[in-house]
Amino acid sequence: MLKIIGIVVAVLVAGVLLHAANKPDTFSVQRSASIQAPPERIFPLINDLRAFNTWNPYEKKDPNLKGRYSGPASGKGAGYAFEGNKDVGKGSIEILESSSPSKVTMRLSMVEPFTVQNRVEFTLVPNGGATNVTWAMQGPAPFLAKIVHVFIDMDQMVGSDFEAGLASLKAAAEK
């Protein structure tokens, strides 16, 4: 009986590893929202990390979050290091590129719970009296991450945070 259980467990583990090995080497999450405001009103809420953190959903997940700003107040080189609970983790974000009022590109460097470097991009496209804002993140998916992705839907998990953040951005920009 013990031998059969061992074989079943080995087959299940092999199946998970094989499934993980066939997942893509990168991941991507993207959400969009239409905001009734011009890009010029929305852009500073993203390009200035202090303003960004007023609507950033991850900032709201830990009331005891510790954060430290560095570099210029906004735009290229602006940075924010953070350390929070298990829902936030530990890492930093830095603005790599800032093209007013249409695009902000950031690097998200996580140290905990996993060490990762992801690219985050906000694009703002005018659409009549509104602006279509897209929040996207992409990065590498090493083998350990692929195994986690077998059990956790990254698009659903992070995507729901992006949706909440875009709703808060919308509320802030439409005031």
Give your account of this protein's structure.
This protein is an alpha+beta fold and 175 residues long. It has one domain (2-173): Alpha-D-Glucose-1,6-Bisphosphate, Chain A, domain 4 (2-Layer Sandwich), CATH 3.30.530. It is 37% helix and 36% strand. The chain contains five helices and seven strands, in the order H-E-H-H-E-E-E-E-E-E-H-H. The chain has helices spanning 2-21, 39-47, 49-55, 143-151, 154-173; strands spanning 26-35, 66-70, 79-83, 90-99, 103-112, 116-127, 130-140. A seven-stranded antiparallel beta sheet has the order 1-7-6-5-4-3-2. Helix 1 (2-21) packs across helix 4 (143-151) and helix 2 (39-47) crosses helix 3 (49-55). The radius of gyration is 19 Å and the shape is elongated. The mean pLDDT is 90.
> How would a textbook summarize the main sheet?
7 strands, antiparallel
Helix run count: 5
How are the strands ordered across the major sheet?
A: 1-7-6-5-4-3-2
SSE order: HEHHEEEEEEHH
Q: State the total count of DSSP E strands.
A: 7
Structural class: alpha+beta
Which residues form runs of ≥5 with pLDDT under 50? none
Global geometry: elongated
Mean pLDDT: 90
Measured on Cα atoms, how large is the radius of gyration?
Answer: 19 Å
**What fraction strand?**
35-45%
CATH topology: Alpha-D-Glucose-1,6-Bisphosphate, Chain A, domain 4
Helical content class = 25-40%
- CATH level 1 class label: Alpha Beta
Head-to-tail CA distance between termini: 67 Å
CATH architecture: 2-Layer Sandwich
- What would you give as the CATH superfamily? START domain
How many domains make up the coordinates? 1
